[in-house]
Design a protein that fits this description.
The chain is of the alpha+beta class. It has four helices and two strands; from the N terminus they run ββαααα. Strands 1-2 form a two-stranded antiparallel sheet. Strand 1 and strand 2 form a beta hairpin.
């Protein structure tokens, strides 16, 4: 796998590590969804960029669920 970075290239041979590069990019490899109140936004998604279209609604939903005595609505 080759990644262009500012006219230089980094080569990563993922075969030596025994894991496909796309496996490193999957949600379960990057995040522990047990540690967030936003886990629902990742449901049905494999890669992090798939949640981009869901972020606005997730923020509004989570914001509305926060206790008013601890958080002020803006």
């Amino acid at each position: 796998v080759i990644f262009p970075i500012h006219k230089q290239y980094i080569t990563i041979d993922t075969r030596k590590r025994g894991m496909n590069m796309t496996e490193h990019l999957k949600i379960h490899s990057l995040f522990d969804l047990k540690e967030t109140i936003a886990a629902e936004v990742f449901e049905g998604c494999t890669y992090p960029w798939e949640v981009l279209s869901k972020i606005k609604d997730a923020i509004l939903q989570i914001g509305n669920s926060l206790p008013e005595e601890e958080y002020r609505k803006a």
